């Protein structure tokens, strides 16, 4: 209430500008917020998809190198020359030493030279008779007591295995290859063609930096970081030295689900970020991508700031425009208000200048016309009063005329009885009854019972005219008599049946009038056995394609009055066969209980 009282003292111009600014500002704020939320959500979803694809590319690159190492191990382990050599008894014969040095040993050397992904490769032989060569062939006894190898060596079912990050175990330095590197090792058991037991252990070492080479230049560079962690949650990639060998939980990522891919939004070090995880199952590692969302939404935020600035400038410009237009319009309204005030004070010689053709000018024209007509209206007051009295007299005369006709018909009936002419008496009585029912006290509606009474009076007159050339059969359900109906609907249908059906037949005819209920809806049916209509004539009448007079015209008139009275709640059906007859059915809407009670009350009056 205080706000309303406060606004009462504010000018209309200020109100217009304030309302305009409020509505536009609120709309812009809500729309801008919704657009920002949708844009950031869409950008985040796209970033999740793009970064996941990037991480999958890195994963594919690492797995390609893993697969390469495993394939090379198969080539070595299933080489028949190596299998035969490892399963043979070495006799230290010169030819054996020569074959050993020139044929067997170069197999490892050639594979390492052709594949720079391999840091080192060696074979630990179970056959103690074969001497060690320090470029790749050693006795298995060197590692038999090493705890790192015992689980793998003791498991007969496992043929291959990857070991975690460790320092290299190469026993000889290779030319051009740095030593003491961090490596991952791949071990494969070699079986000879002669013995069931293991003949040797092949070990291939892959340098960590070579295996994770794809992390150096990821597509996501500048948007986040990609890390590799082992099964204990330690970061084993060293491209970010500050994070090397730290636990993943120490950088705020939290626990990651094991054994499956993962992509969701988490808070990392207090900042919302996309965290994506991809397992490297073959070597027991996991790729983890961390991408702060702000990197993706920076452009959205920048665009939003620019849009807010533009909208603010537009809002300010529109507010000034609204203020200017409102002031101009209200200045013309004030002229009209001053003129109205003069009229209220009694001055009728007031006019407002008209400058254009807009709504305010139309108001001024109307005001000028109003003041010009006031004098005429004052002078015509007495004339109007006289005209009203004349209208009342005409209304009284319209009430007297029916009574005059009734009295005349009663006089004719009395004269007929005096002259002993019963036919004239019946006709005059029927005509009086018919006319009374047609007028229906000036009401525009009737009841089905009233319509039937009017038709009976009409047919009583027509019986004399047709000299009993037709019979009338009434099949009436008295329950329908109280149902409301549009006035004077049945009589034109009966008249049509006589004039266009039975009379042209020139033989004795039958007319059936039925009332009843169907599915709770009252209906009236007029049936004749007259000449009927052809299919073309029936189609023309149903399609309103007929002359301006005759049966078609009467039917159209009835249809129009039914439509005006019931709307689309009624049904009018016309069926005819040439030489057989015609059936017209009017189905009225089901009456509500209140309508039925009102009809009963009208019938009681």
UniProtKB/TrEMBL annotation:
The keyword Ligase does not apply. InterPro entries: Bact_2-comp_sensor_kinase (IPR050640), HAMP_dom (IPR003660), HATPase_C_sf (IPR036890), HATPase_dom (IPR003594), Sig_transdc_His_kin_internal (IPR010559). SUPFAM superfamilies: ATPase domain of HSP90 chaperone/DNA topoisomerase II/histidine kinase, HAMP domain-like. The keyword Phosphoprotein applies. Residues 327-379 form the HAMP domain. Keywords: Cell membrane, Kinase, Membrane, Phosphoprotein, Transferase, Transmembrane, Transmembrane helix. It is a multi-pass membrane protein. This is Two-component system sensor histidine kinase YesM. It comes from Paenibacillus methanolicus.
């Amino acid at each position: 209430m205080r706000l309303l009282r406060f606004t009462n003292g504010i000018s209309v111009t200020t109100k217009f500008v304030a309302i305009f600014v409020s509505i536009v500002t609120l709309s812009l704020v809500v729309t801008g917020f919704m657009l920002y939320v949708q844009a950031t959500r869409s950008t985040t979803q796209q970033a999740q998809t793009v970064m996941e694809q990037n991480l999958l590319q890195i994963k594919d690159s690492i797995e390609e190198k893993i697969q390469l190492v495993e394939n090379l191990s198969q080539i070595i382990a299933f080489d028949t020359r190596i299998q035969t050599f490892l399963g043979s008894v070495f006799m230290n014969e010169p030819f054996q030493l020569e074959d050993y040095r020139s044929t067997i040993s170069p197999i490892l050397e050639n594979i390492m030279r052709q594949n720079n992904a391999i840091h080192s490769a060696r074979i630990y032989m179970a056959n103690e008779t074969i001497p060690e060569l320090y470029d790749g062939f050693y006795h298995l006894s060197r590692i038999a007591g090493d705890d790192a190898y015992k689980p793998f060596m003791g498991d007969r079912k496992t043929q291959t295995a990857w070991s975690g990050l460790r320092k290299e175990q190469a026993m000889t330095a290779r030319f051009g290859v740095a030593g003491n590197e961090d490596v991952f090792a791949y071990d494969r058991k070699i079986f000879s063609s002669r013995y069931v037991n293991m003949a040797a252990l092949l070990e291939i070492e892959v340098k960590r930096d070579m295996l994770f080479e794809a992390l150096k230049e990821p597509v996501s560079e500048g948007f986040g970081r990609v890390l590799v962690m082992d099964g204990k949650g330690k970061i084993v990639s060293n491209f970010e030295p500050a994070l090397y060998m730290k636990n993943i939980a120490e950088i705020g990522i939290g626990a990651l689900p094991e054994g499956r891919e993962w992509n969701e939004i988490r808070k990392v070090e207090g900042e919302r970020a996309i965290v994506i995880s991809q397992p490297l199952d073959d070597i027991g590692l996991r790729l983890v991508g961390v991408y702060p969302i702000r990197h993706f939404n920076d452009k959205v935020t920048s665009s939003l700031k620019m849009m807010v600035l533009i909208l603010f400038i537009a809002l300010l410009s529109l507010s000034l425009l609204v203020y200017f237009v409102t002031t101009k319009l209200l200045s013309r309204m004030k002229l009209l208000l001053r003129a109205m005030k003069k009229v209220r004070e009694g001055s009728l010689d007031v006019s407002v200048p008209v400058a254009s053709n807009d709504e305010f000018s139309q108001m001024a024209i109307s005001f000028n016309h109003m003041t010009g007509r006031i004098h005429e209206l004052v002078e015509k007051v007495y004339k109007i009063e006289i005209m009203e009295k004349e209208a009342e007299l005409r209304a009284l005369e319209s009430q007297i005329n029916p009574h005059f006709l009734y009295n005349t018909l009663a006089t004719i009936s009395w004269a007929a009885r005096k002259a002993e002419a019963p036919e004239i008496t019946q006709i005059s009585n029927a005509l009086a009854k018919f006319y009374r029912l047609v007028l229906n006290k000036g009401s525009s509606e009737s009841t089905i019972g009233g319509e039937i009474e009017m038709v009976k009076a009409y047919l009583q007159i027509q019986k004399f005219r047709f000299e009993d050339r037709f019979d009338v059969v009434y099949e009436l359900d008295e329950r329908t008599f109280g149902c409301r109906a549009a006035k004077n609907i049945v009589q034109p249908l009966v008249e049509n049946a006589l004039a266009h059906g039975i009379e042209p037949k020139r033989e004795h005819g039958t007319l059936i009038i039925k009332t009843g209920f169907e599915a709770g809806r009252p209906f009236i049916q007029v049936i004749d056995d007259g000449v009927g209509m052809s299919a073309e004539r029936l189609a023309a009448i149903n399609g309103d394609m007929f002359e301006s007079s005759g049966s078609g015209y009467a039917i159209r008139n009835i249809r129009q009055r039914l439509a005006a009275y019931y709307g689309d709640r009624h049904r009018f059906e016309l069926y005819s066969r040439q030489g057989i007859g015609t059936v017209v059915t009017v189905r009225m809407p089901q009456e509500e209980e209140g309508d039925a009670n009102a009809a009963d009350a009208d019938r009681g009056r």
